Amino acid sequence: MAATPPSHPTGPHSAGARPPAAPRRAFLKTGAGLATVGVAAAAAAGAGWLLHKPGNDRQLVYATVADAMREVERLASAAVQPLPPATAWNWSETLVHCAQSIEFSLQGFPAPKSALFQNTLGAAAFTLFAQRGRMSHNLAEPIPGAPALDAAAEAQAALARLRRAAQDFAAHTGPLQPHFAYGALNKAQYEQAHAMHLANHLSAFDVVA
User: Fold this and answer.
1) Cis peptide leading into 142, omega within 30 of 0?
2) Residues 6 or more apart from 44 whose CB is under 8 A from it?
3) Contact at 8 Å (CB) between 91 and 156?
């Protein structure tokens, strides 16, 4: 007598088998997490320093301040020009602004945002930027509380200030001051933050062809 087949199939698509949905659920969970970070970062866009995507941008990416400074030196040794409308600042203003950011990480930012902002929207923004390796922000937005930039500043003096700030940061071994928006960062995180900040600004300049 032939064996009676089971009333329910036992193959990979049977009712009793567990479908391979776990990877999909993991993917959806990861995607939802990244989306949450993106939404949080976008919610802070009114501050003027998040998710700004100017046209005519070279989209530079650097992992370290030293890498970014090599591009600074390349531009400074030639006839550097802004790439409108990517930036409203001239070369010397941009160099001083980038120097201020590095200096404040060692000395303290003059007008930090609240701890609540830093620990929520600010931290989410840094996570988003760090994950994609590049930040986007308004290239004409000064650091809150920083001295006003001088459009007539001498470029060589501005370059010397940025060089000194980068050297001081590289040599610094003590505690670092919380970023005005991102909050507390360790040395490696600040290295990435400064490199991304420099890359974003340098992307708006190039040498005269």
Assistant:
1) no
2) 50, 117, 121, 122, 124, 125
3) no
Instruction: Give me 128's structure tokens.
Output: 């988003």
* Cβ neighbours of residue 184 closer than 8 Å, sequence gap 6 or more: 118, 178
Residue type, 189: Q
pTM (2 d.p.) = 0.76
The size of the chain, in residues, is 209
pLDDT in tens, 76-113: 999 999 988 777 899 999 999 999 999 999 999 999 99
Phi-psi region of 87 (alpha: psi -120 to 50; beta: other; left: phi over 0): beta
Contacts of 202 (CB under 8 A, 6+ apart): 58, 60, 68, 71, 72, 75
What's 86's DSSP letter?
S
